[in-house]
Amino acid sequence: MKRNANILQIENLGIHFDTFEGTARVLDGVSLELAPGDTLGVVGETGCGKSITSKAVLGLLPVPPTKIVSGRILFQGEDLLDKSEKEIGKIRGTRIAMIFQDPMTYLNPVFSIEKQMVDVIVRHGRQRGEPVTRKQARTQAVDLLDAVQIPSPADRIREYPHEFSGGMRQRVLIAMALSGKPDLLIADEPTTALDVTIQAQILRLLKDLVNRFNLSILLISHDLGVVAKLCRRIAVMYAGNVVETATIAQVFDQPAHPYTQGLLASIPRLSRRVDSLEGIKGSIPSFIDPPGGCRFNPRCGHAMSVCRKEKPLLEETSPGHRTACFLYKSSWPNT
Ligand SMILES: Nc1ncnc2c1ncn2[C@@H]1O[C@H](COP(=O)(O)OP(=O)(O)OP(=O)(O)O)[C@@H](O)[C@H]1O
Ligand SMILES: [Mg+2]
Fold first, then answer.
1. What is the 105 CA–ligand 1 centroid distance (Å)?
2. How far is the CA of 331 from the centre of ligand 2 (A)?
3. Which atom of ligand 1 lies at the shortest distance from residue 54's CA?
């Protein structure tokens, strides 16, 4: 198998859903890349396709109604779309782990933290072909709770989820995710349900874990401030496309795509969320009948005739900075 320098490389991923109203063309050729040990934040308005992209990586989209119509998802050089359900099951949890917005959904209220962590560690051990006893798993669980900075972990592990605060529950979920010794952690809105102080603590913890556990992180958030705190690079999504990707500094200092410019203009303070875009009129288009050409063209103050006819591809506008916009193309396609 050919090795790839990126731990995760998504190429031209197209995903459709069959709905009663017709085919929803939700992902329109998404491309992203994440280098080993790097942190990539994916941002964009609600409904732009962030979670669908992460679920596709994890093999969590039900077929039907989902149809993968184009592209590849290379993880450590292997295309996940070629894998069987069983093969993906082995990768999920061990080589790729995930944490989500609401930890309580993933913790069972009737079992102690100890039982839930031990079960997960024993299962991960079996999946990796490195079986552990329940006693060994308990020792590992206490060490992991210590790593995610739960105080007095040997005592607190006996408690139940309702005895933990929201921030501590998310730490437990992070500890469980780490127990599979993953190379890639996908975090979908991991701090959205938490207040700002706890949010900052969790982001600091994740940053610390990148180095300690040699992790790569794909962070999904509609909050640019959250992404800026944890990530080195950013991918901005609009209506099922990545429209710009660069380092955090490049995007904040020299946003190139008109959508990114609007996004930043509508967020005077970094900590504000991208729920509504005061700087950009209109809203995200229908996926059943999306605009032709660049999907952003109806909302774009710079739209030209080419933008309504051709789809701009992500191209380098400066080193390490790629933008999908005809404003930056030296020669336009003949239309
Ligand atoms: N089963 C489905 N059938 C049809 N459309 C779907 C289905 N699941 C998701 N979608 C659509 O796909 C689009 C992208 O959804 P996704 O959950 O990826 O958005 P998101 O960027 O994560 O938004 P948010 O910030 O609100 O979490 C949405 O418009 C959603 O309505
Ligand atoms: Mg989402």
1. 19
2. 36
3. 18
Q: Whose CA is closest to 31, among 7, 54, 56, 10?
A: 10
Three-state DSSP string of 255-310 = CCCHHHHHHHHCCCCCCCCCCCCCCCCCCCCCCCCCCCCCCCHHHCCCCCHHHHHC
For 136, residues 6+ apart whose C-beta sits below 8 A from its C-beta are none
Is the separation of the CB atoms in 118 and 137 below 8 Å? yes
pLDDT tens for each residue of 187-238: 999 988 888 888 898 999 999 999 888 899 999 998 888 999 999 999 999 9
| Residue nearest atom 4 of ligand 1, based on CA coordinates | 17
Nearest CA to ligand 1 atom 2: 17
pLDDT in tens, 250-286: 999 999 999 999 888 876 554 445 555 556 777 888 9
Tokens (6 digits) for 302: 């710079």
Tokens of 117: 């962590």
Token readout for 293 is 């050409």
Cα angle 239, 242, 243 (rounded to 5 degrees) comes to: 90
pTM of the complete model beyond 0.85: yes
Cβ < 6 A, ligand 1 pocket: 17, 19, 24, 26, 44, 46-52, 65, 222, 287
Point out the ligand nearest to the CA of residue 239: 1
